[in-house]
Amino acid sequence: MNRHSQPELDTSPEVSDEIRKTTCYMCACRCGINVHMKDGKVKYIEGNRDHPVNKGVLCAKGSAGIMTHYAPSRLRAPMKRVGERGSGEFQEISWDEAFDIAESWLAPIRETNPEKLAFFTGRDQSQSLTSWWAQAFGTPNYAAHGGFCSVNMAAAGIYTMGGAFWEFGAPDWDRTKLFMIFGVAEDHDSNPIKIGLGKLKERGAKVIGVNPIRSGYNAIADEWVGITPGTDGLFILALIHELLKAGKIDLDYLIRYTNAPFLVNEDPNSPEHGLFMRDDDGKPLVLDRATGRPVAFDTKGTKSDLVGSHRHAGVSHRPVFQLLAEKYLTPDHAPEAVADACGLKVDQIKRIAAELAHVAFEQEITIDQPWTDWKGEKHQTMTGRPVSFHAMRGISAHSNGFQTCRALHILQILLGSVEVPGGFRFKPPYPKPASAHPKPHCGVRPGRALNGPHLGFVQGPEDLLLKEDGSPARIDKAFTWENPMSSHGLMHMVISNAHAGDPYKIDTLFMYMANMSWNSSMNTAGVMEMLTDRGEDGEYVIPRIIYSDSYSSEMVAFADLILPDTTYLERHDCISLLDRPICEAEAAADSIRWPVVEPDRPGHEGVRGFQTALIQLGVRLGLPGMVNDDGSAKYADYADYIQNHQRRPGVGPLAGFRGKDGKGKGRGQPNPNQIQAYIENGGFWIDHIPDEALFYKPWNAAYQDWAVARGIYDAVQPYVFQLYVEPMQRFRLAAEGHGDHQPPEHLREQVRSTMDPLPVWYPPFEETVVDREEFPLHALTQRPMAMYHSWGTQNAWLRQIHGTNPLFVSGDVWALHNFEPGDWALVTSRHGQIRVPVARMDALNARTVWTWNAIGKRAGAWALDENAPEAKKGFLLNHLIDELLPERADGQRWSNSDPITGQAAWFDLRVKIEKADSLPETSQPHAPAQKSPVGRGPRDVAYGGEF
Ligand code: SF4
Fold this sequence. Notes:
- By secondary structure, the protein is of the alpha/beta class.
- The protein contains 25 helices and 34 strands.
- A seven-stranded mixed β-sheet has the order 5-4-25-24-23-6-7, covered by helices on one side. The protein has a six-stranded mixed β-sheet with strand order 30-32-31-34-29-33. A four-stranded parallel β-sheet has the order 11-10-9-21, with helices on both faces.
- A hairpin with an 8-residue loop joins β1 and β2.
- The longest helix has 18 residues, at 95-112.
- The model has no long low-confidence stretch (mean pLDDT 95).
- Residues 24, 26-27, 29-31, 54, 58-59, 61-62, 190-191 line the site of iron/sulfur cluster.
- Residues 24, 26-27, 29-31, 54, 58-59, 61-62, 190-191 line the site of iron/sulfur cluster (SF4).
């Protein structure tokens, strides 16, 4: 080539010959993706611009889905264990043999005592199917992963206002002017929050990040509040104190839409102390401002009082708002009283409160949109207070998390910024108050289905799941006096309780997509021991373990029987309104996954989508709803179920394209072409909410009617927000000795002090059981943006971003211990010790250390080389966290959880740190290598059909 000629370059090569549209599953956000195919193989992945969730945006994980799809760690066939548990020694078997084994274990349990099966799933997106299956089996022991994730947030939101954040709702990104984000790493609701933050930045709206760690979303916040872990509740209640003091409360909103005017019994000797005054129909009463008389809260035309007193039968009653104001106006809630504990300055708390008030009340926005409320009153406009919030695990994974989350929801409500323009908005099927959810059930009947749904929302002590002798009915002790409102169960306690035989022994542990022997458990080393422990008879203490995963994760090695799942590009799924759909505040929407490539594991028996395998196992067991009268299968596979199952007449897993003509929205008979209609529509369905129904959803007549027409509700169900949660007071009354249902003595004081119907702050339990001078630091984990959620294998692209994880320490800690770059440290908690690399990070609360979660892998897992950096230098903080609190004076050990919901208190951890020798460069503890049932991945990867 001479210097004047140019090489022939194809600058726009044809990258694909076909595009297939489905839903990403590299994390839980459920973005739409366009999968580019070439010669029938996946070539690359881009975002779907038409999709309501991500509008074309794709994150690093989403792109790296191709690597996960072709990962060498994919399982290839069903397997039965042939070596010791934990060794990783398996023999591949046929699906027939796998089902024979599972049936031989499960059928006798079902016929005799279904509670001997504990079925728990991880971060899957098919909980409406798995819960239905577990209910049909008849075991009370079912839940998903919410108990160790964010049940505090979800339950607090539902009990307070009928929904929380993320799937439940979102800020009005187009209108909000001040946005506060609490305890959110850059993982949750990933692409939607990134898109939303982009909109705020474009408009110059202010973002305040409240997080001990300034990374991710907090790094781009206009103001960072580097709060001390576990003190968010103090901070929020101080904001409420300031707003009350300044009179910056939306009183009209409180009167119309909340229980602020409800009259509360104030006689401490009354068995109804703290309960609402009610009329003969059981309706709570409010004081009518015009007459001064009590009337039912929903009486048309009533303007109720927020202060006042009413005496009836010798008992005084006062409105909720008055009790609330008196509670939070006390000096112990003032910024001056809490700033030190929060690690903040008094002025900063006061200024943020003033900014919230200014934006909410001086910058209100009005939309010219008439609407009609639930009492028939017509409004010409929609008025908004453009302040919004988002929060997640950082404030909820504490033993005081439920009350902290409640406090945040109350702050939103006092500002009048929920379901208004510029505020927080619900996404269908929310709003849905606790009273509209089912109560939990535990009625076990051998050979029959459970007597109702497992999980739900208790309204008082009579709803707890206790046996006649008062012992827990569930293996995880959910819905007991220890944690009465455990709406998502306590997955993190299942293995520990099953191993201890407390409250009873089980026979088979069946888990899906839950890496319990590694990053999804507290006390990881202890859990591995429990899974492999043998009794005096030489048998495993947990006799049988069935596990389903797509990849050779750490947990696979601990199972006796493996049901291999597909990758997300090989499966059918429905992201359903019955479960966790993709709705937006302006629309109902759901979506599917479908096999853009067929499962293919050459030379092996092959894999099946777990949900298909579950249905087929259900047919083997003859479970009701899964078989016809002649015992034949009702559904051939999950796709068949998605299309033909009806949860209620006309309502099924997918809301779109229903009915024979495919025109039904939300309601309609099954459509034999429904999945094809979704595929042709880009993998999703969306139905926009009419303009007059877009805000005030709990009280908007047009929204309520629209929701009924779509099958979201069966009847209109307007309700008011619960500043004061009366069911909590019912538990407190019991703890004070009232009623037939009484807590055990050792839990009486805990119930009384924590179940306050108005939020309280108390120190995280860890702080009360360790010497805070000996363990002066808080220790946290966050999932990195590129690695959030554990079902994706450690793939080559993402390993280049995070192959190891240091422990980040603040400049103060760095200087105190004379750390130098490359140093290692010993980190010790009351439970254990780890040896890890350290790195300095100044954008960090001075009393906190932290690391990325789940970068560290066990040698031998995930088809990684045994000397991979993840196994040598990567580490888990989980080794330091005990699932139990230390023994008490009475010999009891309580779960390391929130005492209201049972949420795992991951973030209560306290540690001390000291400099360690720099050699060897291996993190400790270092579990011995597992044998990999799928061999090792290649050293180098290149695209050649498969990586
Ligand atoms: S945010 Fe989650 S669902 Fe969306 S593209 Fe990224 S990995 Fe996929």
